[in-house]
Amino acid sequence: MQSFYQINTQIQFITYNMAKKKEVTVEEKLRALYDLQLIDSRIDEIKSVRGELPLEIEDLEDEIVGLNKRLSNLGEEVTNLKNEISAKKLVIEEAKTLIKKYAEQQKNVRNNREFNSLSKEIEFQELEVQLAEKRIKEFKVKIEQKNEVINATKENIEKQESALNHKKAELDDIVKDTKKEEALLTEKSKEYAKLIDDHLLKAYNRIRANVKNGLAVVSIERGASGGSFFTIPPQRQVEIASRKKIITDEYSGRILVDGNLAEEEKQKIENLLK
Prior knowledge:
Elements: H1 4-19, H2 26-50, H3 53-106, H4 112-193, H5 198-210, E1 217-221, E2 224-225, H6 234-242, E3 247-248, E4 255-257, H7 259-273
Parallel strand pairs: 1-4
Antiparallel strand pairs: 1-2, 3-4
Helix pairs in contact: 1-5, 2-4, 2-7, 3-4
């Protein structure tokens, strides 16, 4: 990142080269710079009115997608549990069929060994029935728990969708109110940027990026640069008012213009926006 001193030195060099171009005066460059600043500041204001709405909308949309995915997964889990219950019911039916079969066979056994063997088979199948019934109860409990989560998730989705629709409507109203103005401002911003030397424009954008309020060009107010408490010496103020060269504030690095020029350009931009 370049220091304000380096930017100032670069601007002075650019100003020297511009002064040699008779077709474009320094004053014209200053006016174009200040016009660009006024336009860009108004665009900043419009974006500020939107605030965090676009990001909030994006976050809500992502959250709803995640909730719907979770809902889908829960639905699949419930379906799988129901399939498990169906499978266990088949196990029970098969086991009961075998128990009945083995019980009939016991009636026709020839010795105790065969009887005891069939008894063990019957006992095993009875255990299979008990185990299957236990698993069915466990699956049903899990289904109830997951259904509770599903209902809560659906309520959450409904709530978030309502918030999303509200924020979208709010943003649409803001965009609707400022759409034409922002389009005009954006067009004029590009138009005025073309009137400014590329190097000077880069310096302007660099200064805007380095200050919180985006003000790269400010006027003299009560003997100080706009937004600053540091007084500018009278001789320096005279130089600024002469509009013969581009001068920056040694404390903030901002480009300075005199109050009269600023008022004239403010009126011009206001008339343009009307």
